[in-house]
Amino acid sequence: MHIIKVCTGVACKRNFGDENLKRAEKILGIKAGENKLKGSIQLENSGCLGHCEHAPNVYFGEASPISMLINDGKVEKHILPNKLEEKLKKLTFINSKYHE
Ligand code: FES
Protein backbone atom coordinates (compact mmCIF):
# COMPACT_ATOMS: atom_id res chain seq x y z
CA MET A 1 0.00 0.00 0.00
CA HIS A 2 1.26 3.48 -0.85
CA ILE A 3 0.97 6.01 1.94
CA ILE A 4 0.95 9.65 0.90
CA LYS A 5 1.07 12.25 3.64
CA VAL A 6 0.60 15.81 2.45
CA CYS A 7 1.99 18.22 5.01
CA THR A 8 -0.32 21.06 5.98
CA GLY A 9 1.73 22.18 8.96
CA VAL A 10 2.31 25.92 9.34
CA ALA A 11 5.34 26.26 7.02
CA CYS A 12 3.87 24.04 4.32
CA LYS A 13 0.44 25.66 4.63
CA ARG A 14 2.11 28.99 3.77
CA ASN A 15 3.77 27.32 0.77
CA PHE A 16 1.03 25.52 -1.14
CA GLY A 17 0.36 22.81 1.49
CA ASP A 18 -3.41 23.28 1.28
CA GLU A 19 -3.25 23.44 -2.51
CA ASN A 20 -1.22 20.22 -2.50
CA LEU A 21 -3.85 18.47 -0.41
CA LYS A 22 -6.69 19.72 -2.62
CA ARG A 23 -4.81 18.67 -5.74
CA ALA A 24 -4.07 15.21 -4.31
CA GLU A 25 -7.71 14.69 -3.34
CA LYS A 26 -8.83 15.72 -6.82
CA ILE A 27 -6.34 13.51 -8.69
CA LEU A 28 -6.88 10.48 -6.47
CA GLY A 29 -10.64 11.05 -6.26
CA ILE A 30 -10.64 10.56 -2.49
CA LYS A 31 -10.56 12.66 0.65
CA ALA A 32 -7.66 12.59 3.10
CA GLY A 33 -8.07 9.54 5.32
CA GLU A 34 -9.55 7.39 2.54
CA ASN A 35 -8.08 4.61 0.39
CA LYS A 36 -8.10 4.18 -3.37
CA LEU A 37 -7.69 1.31 -5.83
CA LYS A 38 -8.62 -1.60 -3.60
CA GLY A 39 -6.83 0.03 -0.70
CA SER A 40 -3.51 0.36 -2.51
CA ILE A 41 -3.17 4.12 -2.05
CA GLN A 42 -3.89 5.95 1.16
CA LEU A 43 -3.94 9.73 1.38
CA GLU A 44 -3.36 11.54 4.67
CA ASN A 45 -3.41 15.14 5.80
CA SER A 46 -0.24 15.40 7.87
CA GLY A 47 1.08 17.73 10.51
CA CYS A 48 4.69 18.91 10.32
CA LEU A 49 7.02 16.37 8.75
CA GLY A 50 10.10 17.99 10.27
CA HIS A 51 11.57 19.63 7.16
CA CYS A 52 9.88 23.04 7.28
CA GLU A 53 12.80 24.83 5.62
CA HIS A 54 12.06 22.86 2.44
CA ALA A 55 8.28 23.43 2.39
CA PRO A 56 6.07 22.25 0.86
CA ASN A 57 6.81 18.63 1.70
CA VAL A 58 5.04 15.36 1.02
CA TYR A 59 5.84 11.96 2.50
CA PHE A 60 5.69 8.94 0.20
CA GLY A 61 5.87 5.53 1.84
CA GLU A 62 4.92 1.91 1.48
CA ALA A 63 3.10 -0.20 4.06
CA SER A 64 2.19 -3.83 4.32
CA PRO A 65 -1.61 -4.11 4.01
CA ILE A 66 -1.53 -6.73 6.75
CA SER A 67 0.70 -5.20 9.38
CA MET A 68 0.51 -1.54 8.27
CA LEU A 69 4.20 -1.27 9.15
CA ILE A 70 5.61 1.51 7.01
CA ASN A 71 8.95 1.02 5.28
CA ASP A 72 10.91 2.62 2.45
CA GLY A 73 9.25 5.96 3.07
CA LYS A 74 10.79 9.35 2.62
CA VAL A 75 9.87 12.99 2.80
CA GLU A 76 10.16 14.59 -0.59
CA LYS A 77 10.97 18.26 -0.39
CA HIS A 78 9.86 21.30 -2.38
CA ILE A 79 6.90 19.41 -3.82
CA LEU A 80 4.90 22.15 -5.50
CA PRO A 81 1.36 21.33 -6.71
CA ASN A 82 2.35 20.67 -10.34
CA LYS A 83 5.14 18.32 -9.28
CA LEU A 84 2.79 16.51 -6.89
CA GLU A 85 0.21 16.17 -9.63
CA GLU A 86 2.80 14.64 -11.95
CA LYS A 87 3.92 12.13 -9.30
CA LEU A 88 0.38 11.13 -8.35
CA LYS A 89 -0.70 10.65 -11.95
CA LYS A 90 2.29 8.38 -12.51
CA LEU A 91 1.50 6.45 -9.31
CA THR A 92 -2.20 5.98 -10.13
CA PHE A 93 -1.35 4.92 -13.69
CA ILE A 94 1.08 2.27 -12.42
CA ASN A 95 -1.40 1.07 -9.81
CA SER A 96 -4.33 0.91 -12.22
CA LYS A 97 -2.24 -1.28 -14.53
CA TYR A 98 -1.31 -3.52 -11.60
CA HIS A 99 -4.97 -3.96 -10.58
CA GLU A 100 -6.34 -4.69 -14.08
S1 FES B 1 5.24 22.33 8.29
FE1 FES B 1 5.56 20.93 6.66
S2 FES B 1 7.47 20.06 7.17
FE2 FES B 1 7.10 21.38 8.84
Describe the structure.
With 100 residues, the chain is an alpha+beta fold. It has a single domain (2-98), classed as Glutaredoxin, CATH 3.40.30. It has three helices and five strands, in the order E-H-H-E-E-E-E-H. It has helices at residues 10-13, 17-28, 81-98, and strands at 2-7, 35-36, 41-46, 58-63, 70-76. The protein has a five-stranded mixed sheet. Strand 2 (35-36) and strand 3 (41-46) form a beta hairpin. Helix 2 packs parallel to helix 3 (81-98). It is globular, with a radius of gyration of 13 Å. The protein starts with a strand and ends with a helix. The model has no long low-confidence stretch (mean pLDDT 88). It binds FE2/S2 (inorganic) cluster (FES).
**Helix/strand/pairing class, anyone?**
alpha+beta
Poorly predicted runs are none
| CATH structural class | Alpha Beta
**CATH superfamily annotation:** Glutaredoxin
Q: β content, as a range? A: 25-35%
Percent of residues in helical segments?
25-40%
Spatial strand arrangement across the major sheet: 2-3-1-4-5
- Domain count: the total is 1
N-end to C-end Cα span:
16 Å
Q: Any guess at the CATH architecture?
A: 3-Layer(aba) Sandwich
